[in-house]
Write a structure and sequence with these properties.
The complex is a heterodimer. Chain A is an alpha/beta fold. Chain A folds into two domains: about 1-235, Rossmann fold; about 245-370, 3-Layer(aba) Sandwich (Rossmann fold). Chain A is about 35% helix and about 15% strand. Chain A is built from 14 helices and 14 strands. In chain A, the strands form three sheets. A seven-stranded mixed sheet of chain A has the order 3-2-4-5-7-6-12, sandwiched between helices. In chain A, helix 3 (about 40-55) runs parallel beside helix 9 (about 185-195). The N and C termini of chain A lie far apart (about 45 Å). Chain B is of the alpha/beta class. Chain B folds into two domains: about 45-315 and about 325-380, Rossmann fold (3-Layer(aba) Sandwich), CATH 3.40.50; about 385-410, no CATH class. Helices cover about 35% and strands about 10% of the residues of chain B. Chain B has eleven helices and seven strands. Chain B has helices at about 75-100, 115-125, 135-140, 145-155, 190-200, 220-230, 265-270, 280-295, 335-345, 350-375, 400-410, and strands at about 130, 210-215, 235-240, 245, 250, 270-275, 300-305. In chain B, the strands form two sheets. Chain B has a five-stranded parallel sheet with strand order 1-2-3-7-6, with helices on both faces. Chains A and B meet through helix 5, helix 6 and helix 7 of A and helix 5 and helix 6 of B.
Chain lengths: ~375, ~400
């Protein structure tokens, strides 16, 4: 019931209803170079569809993820196309879902599981942290489990504290896990495919506020749909976007912005709002991290602003900040700034005070341009 | 709503005996050997619920195999089982002593529980994946895994098959159907279910088998495992080794006073067997029943193996502080090695002399392996290259690990 509300909230924010209602097997004509316009849901669905068609060891399961196709429709029609045992419903047991996937992975399959909301991932935390992440190490490579844990994540959808969290730093801290967050349909498909093909366990967070459009944080304005974006032109065939390679979303000379997921679009809007020539780097994967791209950019600009939705304290921004000062200290012309969620639980009524929007990003950019004063 | 007129009181379960008390097992309801009916392995689980509250036993007081659960094993199999149990006990004794001598940091014996892992390790082929706890060393020993490799792991020495990564006794061997042990309790039961689901998904013929202690059945993972096993009819054997004690907490703290551990299966719609875990033949027969059922695609069986943890929980534990000192001696279901020995002698297939020779031989095998392993090194005397500390975190090292390895200078 709650999930229904979110779908509707999403629609009110400017999503094309036909994509939600009629499934999302792309209906449009093929664009240039064999691409199709897709929103992020369609791109993720396409990634799963192509991998399942190619590799019989890939299967997908999760709560409501079988017949129904998932509350966000990412696994829509996979059961119909690939069969009941390859895309099925799981009991409401995140621990059981991940544990079963670990066993399947150890057998030799490549399971992709859906945790309905990242906020529900905690019952599976022990299985992810103590088991999936550690199998290879503790057995000296005798046992491994290449599972992919997909989970809709992040805020901006009036989900309150149990449907809005960004818990990536709880996973980046764990030796043996890879953590990936796409910001657009093209990357979503390529990165998810790369995660499925990766021989290590991967946590794949899907910024649900981006499912239907590149939300830039100007919440009172209508959101443009994905189809207007170049990054929504998605090849119909399988392809991968390598893990550990950042994307420079916008080149700039004055300050480097490090962001991922929804915050990539918020950062672009923030830079525009501030009138600052920022270089916006979409990290795409937090682990492995493209440290070279970060270092090169900060050395060029001499300034760094980190933007994330998760609470500031012990957020991944803290790690990035430390890395940047360790590697670029003598190039820095201003203190590294962080624009983050507050250290409160994610609030319902105060969503837009909590959510780091373009205005907060713009303020941080201006302050950084002013030497941090 | 009417207010209570009587004050409520909180119940905290207590065992029947504490240090200094005379062991009291009068509360145990033990079926006589041969008294429990054996349903067909493919029967409807609804029709065999009583078995969750009974106790399958085969060997009687005189060492005779009686009743419908007698697996009718040939003497050679029985002798092999006995020898593997003897070897397991000899191995435990030596490694426990090695800890006392400062040769390793930790050890855990399975004294009194040898029949379980040994019988099950003999029945199931090693292609079936076992998800053991830390008290199933008998599985490796029954399958002929090199003792010296077990010791190398215990000593974390240069030849440790898992490169000094784990606490002693957390073995791992894919080739012997022995999944890498986790020190976190209960986590591997739902993984075993997933492994079994994968086998079924692929149309393979392999089973999974898992073990969990009575105490750890209180973990959510156990209940998640039973839900998944039932829902997807996974070909898995789910053992609960009820050895009465979870470190210092008696089985009542895990709910054992309210119902049997086997009966937990009923609520999930799974068949359950409750078995004398100190009776090699009963363990064998029950496991075979569950195996037949799983191989026929009829799904999982829960087996409660009723036994007693004769040894301390680990080398870090002192049971004299929480249970009567002679509780193990007085355990009404005896000792698995003594009982199988008695049976073989009753059959005319074994003798006290052969027993003595087998014990001597076991000690000799362990001593020889010990010599070999100690020549490589006990804990701290030798170890894998420090460089390996940074390997196997991922399939390929990322830049952080490369940098950190260089920082260590290796």
């Amino acid at each position: 019931m709650v999930e229904k509300t979110f779908t509707e909230a999403d629609r009110n924010d400017g999503i094309e209803p036909d994509m939600v209602d009629q499934g999302h097997a792309p209906k449009s004509t093929t664009g240039g170079n064999g691409t199709l316009p897709m929103n992020m849901i369609q791109a993720l669905n396409s990634a799963l569809d192509a991998k399942m068609a190619e590799d019989p060891n890939v299967l997908s399961f999760g709560e409501d993820a079988g017949y129904f196709g998932g509350v966000f429709r990412v696994t829509d029609k996979l059961q119909e196309k690939h069969g009941l045992t390859r895309s099925f419903d799981a009991p409401i047991s995140e621990c059981g879902i991940v544990a079963a996937a670990i066993g399947m992975g150890a057998y030799g399959l490549r399971p992709v599981v859906e945790i309905q909301f990242a906020d529900y991932i905690y019952p599976a935390y022990d299985q992810i942290v103590s088991e999936a992440a550690k199998l290879r190490y503790r057995s000296a490579g005798m046992f491994t489990s290449p599972i992919t844990v997909r989970s809709p994540y992040g805020g901006g959808i009036f989900g309150g504290q149990t449907h809005s969290q960004s818990p990536e730093s709880l996973f980046t801290h764990i030796a043996g896990l890879k953590v990936v967050v796409p910001s657009n349909p093209y990357d979503a498909k390529g990165l998810l495919t790369a995660c499925i093909e990766d021989d290590d366990p991967t946590i794949f967070f899907e910024p649900k506020r981006l499912y239907n459009g590149p939300f830039d944080g100007w919440h009172e304005k209508p959101v443009s749909p994905w189809k207007a974006q170049e990054l929504a032109q998605v090849p119909a065939e399988k392809y991968t976007v390598p893990l550990g390679k950042a994307r420079i979303m916008k080149e700039g000379a004055d300050v480097t912005i490090l962001a991922w997921g929804t915050m990539v679009w918020v950062s672009l809007a923030g830079a525009e709002h501030a009138g600052v020539d920022a270089e916006v780097i979409d990290l795409r994967s937090l682990v492995p991290l493209d440290i070279e791209a970060i270092e090169a950019s900060v050395k060029k600009t001499g300034r760094c602003v980190i933007v994330h939705e998760a609470p500031k304290t012990s957020g991944y921004g803290a790690e990035l900040s430390a890395l940047v000062q360790e590697r670029c200290f003598y190039h820095l012309e201003a203190p590294i700034a962080r624009v983050c969620g507050w250290d409160t639980p994610y609030p319902h009524a105060f969503e837009w005070e909590y959510f780091p929007g373009p205005e907060r990003v713009a303020e941080a950019l201006k302050s950084t341009m002013n030497g941090g004063r | 709503m009417k207010k209570n007129t009587k004050a409520l009181s909180l119940r905290v379960p207590e065992p029947s005996g504490r240090p200094g008390d005379t062991p009291d097992f009068s509360h145990l309801k033990l079926d006589a050997p041969g008294a429990v009916a054996r349903p067909d392995a493919l029967s409807d689980h609804h029709e065999m619920r009583d078995l969750a509250f009974r106790l399958v036993r085969v060997l009687d007081e005189d060492g005779t195999a009686v009743g419908p659960w007698d697996p009718k094993l040939d003497p050679e199999t029985l002798r092999n089982g006995l020898k593997a149990m003897i070897l397991t006990r000899a191995f435990d004794d030596r490694m426990h002593r090695a800890h006392r001598q400062g040769k390793t940091s930790f050890y855990m014996k399975c004294t009194g529980e040898e029949a379980i892992a040994v019988a099950q390790g003999m029945i199931l082929p090693r292609e079936d994946m076992g998800f053991p706890t830390y008290r199933q060393q008998g599985l490796l020993i029954a399958r002929g895994y090199p003792l010296v490799d077990m010791m190398n792991q215990i000593y974390s020495n240069a030849s440790d098959p898992i490169k000094g990564r784990q606490l002693p006794i957390m073995y791992s061997s894919r080739d012997y159907g022995f999944f890498t042990i986790s020190g976190n309790l209960g986590t591997q039961v739902p993984q075993a279910v997933g492994w079994a689901m994968a086998s079924a998904y692929k149309g393979d013929d392999k089973l999974a088998i898992s073990w969990i202690g009575d105490g750890a059945t209180a973990e959510g993972d156990f209940h998640n495992a039973l839900t998944f096993a039932a829902v997807y009819r996974a070909p898995v054997i789910l053992n609960i080794v009820n050895n009465q004690w979870a470190i210092s907490s008696f089985q009542g703290i895990a709910g054992g006073l309210e119902t049997t551990f086997a009966s937990k299966a009923i609520g999930y719609g799974l068949p359950a067997l409750r078995v004398d875990g100190n009776d090699f033949l009963a363990v064998w027969a029950a496991t075979q029943w569950a195996e037949e059922r799983a191989r026929a695609n009829r799904g999982a069986t829960v087996i409660e193996l009723f036994t007693y943890r004769g040894a301390p929980h680990s080398t870090s534990d002192d049971p004299s502080r929480y249970r009567p000192g002679d509780e193990h001696e007085k355990w009404p279901l005896g000792d698995p090695i003594a009982r199988l020995k008695q049976h073989l002698i009753a059959l005319g297939e074994w003798s006290d002399e052969q027993q003595e020779a087998a014990e001597k031989d076991a000690v000799e095998q362990v001593r020889a392996a010990g010599k070999e392993s100690e020549a490589i090194g006990t804990l701290g005397q030798s170890r894998p290259s420090v460089k390996t500390m940074f390997e196997d975190v991922f399939a390929t090292e990322d830049w952080r690990l490369v940098e950190q390895r260089r920082e260590v200078g290796v």
